[in-house]
């Protein structure tokens, strides 16, 4: 057996079982740490990725290139800094922190490092998302057991409630054109399971798009606005990320071998999906390349 043939076999074996993503060559693992890395968010130009991690003792924000290199810490505070989201210009982040004693929304200017408090509401502001035109930020507000959707101007003024529901309305995500928000809720299931919904940003009319056993949650829009990526927990407990059209019809699914999968985020070129996945005891950041 020639050396060249042996080298070829080794290369094939690496591609199958030794790649950063494990056995699936379409899967790339970006972080490797014994702590939890979660909530990946691609920069608008696709070059960078921000995420949260408790690797230094509490939740802080981190930045890395989209290939997992050049990792750096963005925040350093005794409080928890979580749920980062980019402004459409790629110059700021909005995130949640309890550094003032209660969970509120803050902005971080990446160039200067200046942190500014954005909201100060009764309850916990969670899961912010910047609108495509940069003028508003949608978020969920939890007050005791109720969670509803709100929107605030990017300067922190004019808070408007979008939904009013005794169960949870969570994870608002703007469509690329800014005319709709995707979210997940238990509003029609008596609190039993999560389904996906679309909310008209102008009229606040709500349309349910999934009706399947188990949980559908954490939707993310494709850049062309034609599809959603969402986490799925099947009735038997199997985890996956599903690609659905905006009517809720499944088109693709991936995720074999993961104990947990959540928080998908679509790359600007529409070819990749980042997500937080757990296989070895802690959450790490992975990227899945979609088939052509």
Estimate the mean pLDDT confidence.
92
Share of helical residues: under 10%
Q: Largest sheet, if any?
A: 4 strands, antiparallel
The percentage of residues in β strands lies in over 45%
Looking at how many chains there are and whether they match, the oligomeric state comes to single chain
**Largest sheet, spatial ordering of strands:** 1-24-23-22
Uncertain ranges: 1-22
Measured distance between first and last alpha carbons: 36 Å
By DSSP, the count of extended strands is: 24
Rg calculated over all Cα atoms = 19 Å
Count, helices: 1
Short overview:
The chain has 292 residues and is mainly beta. It has one helix at 3-18, and strands spanning 27-29, 37-42, 48-53, 60-65, 72-73, 81-86, 92-97, 104-109, 115-117, 124-130, 136-143, 146-153, 160-161, 169-174, 180-185, 195-200, 206-208, 215-221, 227-233, 239-245, 250-254, 260-266, 272-278, 283-289.
